[in-house]
Amino acid sequence: MRTAGWLALGVVIVGGMTLAVSRAAEESPAPATEANAPPTAQPPASSVPVTPKNAAPPPSVTIIGASDAHGVLGRDVLSAANEDMGRIVDVVVDRSGHVRAAVIDFGGFLGVGSRKIVVDWNAMRFGKIVNKKDSITLELTKAQVAAAPEYKEDTPMVVLGASGSLQPLQAVQ
User: Fold this and answer.
1) What are 84-123's pLDDT values in tens digits?
2) Region 149-167 average pLDDT
3) What is the 3-state secondary structure (H, E, C) of the chain?
């Protein structure tokens, strides 16, 4: 019931904003009066009517409930055996905008001696993230992640995936 209330409130707000923008675009500036007109000897030879520029259409709006989606940057990642695997520090997308992988800051202590590892997005499970303290589960062992090569920006990346789940990125010609 709460979600329906938020949805209705969002629709009313967007509708009001759209109406206000369209009315503002339709209104023309007030005509100059003698009191605020600049002193001139003669009226201008040609007067160009001032028309308001067309306002851009309102953006689309999607309302996502607070319990339906969560941010992932900075989240702890655990193995299926409940081992600490690090934190998500970046998300990798391909040229079409599809999420392909996550960069995990793995190992070390308080950021010293850690290294970044890239893991396939499909190797992660997000089912139990209700609040900021909840972690994400990775379908890889700590030994598998420890053996992965380090990720360095602007170099080809090796994406570590769960057995058989990673699809190769096709080269764009």
Assistant:
1) 999 999 999 999 999 999 999 998 766 677 899 999 999 9
2) 79
3) CHHHHHHHHHHHHHHHHHHHHHHHHHCCCCCCCCCCCCCCCCCCCCCCCCCCCCCCCCCCCCCCCCCCCCCCCCCEEEECCCCEEEEEEEEEECCCCCEEEEEEEECCECCECCEEEEEEHHHEECCCCCCCCCCEEECCCHHHHHCCCCCCCCCCCCEECCCCCCCCCCCCC
Q: For position 35, what pLDDT does the model report? A: 53
The amino acid that residue 65 corresponds to is G
- Rounded to two decimals, the pTM is 0.58
Contact 14, 22 (CB under 8 A): no
Residue 172 has pLDDT above 50, yes or no: no
- Hey, CA dihedral for 104, 92, 98, 172, is it positive or negative? negative
Determine the Cα angle at 21 with ends 15 and 22, to 5°: 90
**Whole-number pLDDT of residue 9:** 46
Of 105, 121, 118, 106, whose CA–CA distance to 156 is shortest? 118
The two structure tokens encoding residue 26 = 């339709």
Residue 99 corresponds to which tokens in the numbers above? 């999420």
pLDDT of residue 138: 92
